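Researcher: I'm comparing several assemblies side by side, and this is the next one on my list. It has 305 residues spread over two chains. Same procedure as the others: predict the full complex and return the structure.
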Amino acid sequence: MPHDQHDHLSPSGHPYRADNDTPLSYWQTMEIAVRELLIEKGVSTAAEINGQINAMDARSPADGAQVVARAWTDPAFRERLLTNGSDACREMGFDIGALQLIAVENTRDVHNIIVCTLCSCYPRNLLGLAPDWYKSREYRSRTVKEPRKVLSEFGVNLPEAVQVRVHDSTADMRYVVVPARPDGTDGWSAGKLADLVTRDSMIGTGLAKAP
Amino acid sequence: MGRPPMADLDRVRVRKMMPPGHVRTPAYLRGKTGWIERQLGPFGNPEQQAYGLRGDPLVLYRVRFTMAEVWGDGAERPDDTLDAEIYEHWLEPV
């Protein structure tokens, strides 16, 4: 038996771990080919491509949380955000590129939830990369059909009187939910409020945290 | 942008057609009636852009549907709503 175990250990004594051992898919091969051509032909450099990847990885829900907290504390900003989400984010200094953003606001009467049934459109230039479940067929197909059941599985049980508005990002716009400001936060600074704003609350699958 | 723009709250029906190729009108909304929530764009036609062509500029509408309209008796809550972005050539006035 001890002999068998040796077959699964590397010479260093550690077990072998699975790595990128499967063959490349068609699209992975295509990505590498295009990237190498762009570099070979001088259109871009490896450093520029890596810089873009790093810039995308640096974006996170914390950026969106600052936008929401500002909307909670600055009524004029809230108006601008609901009128033109992209311009309002740029005004706060966020580099959102070509993102075309619509902000939708939760109130006592309305709860908004975002989905993309056709693919997985997400306001990544503001919130960073989408969670894996957002891209799943299950979330995409069920959210447009039974949003209240989906919400309850996320732990969100809405009062009967609240209307649910589902937003299917089918084309050029991206969406962010402005969650309702939690009770008991009167007088809080925007910085403190931002800590209550979760990623899921800006997708609509969650609520802002209670203080 | 050949046809006159529709105004907010105008009632519209999504054309019930099944063309081949890249289309950004979800199948589950085709043939359904809603109302214009707001007008956006113009944006290039993705049905052309998907094939490397220059997309003709199109008005994009946000259309709001009731769940009752989309799912009929199967609706989870009839008066909840669903909004989607639909390009002008997919909409006909009701």
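Model: For your comparison table: The mean pLDDT of chain A is 94.
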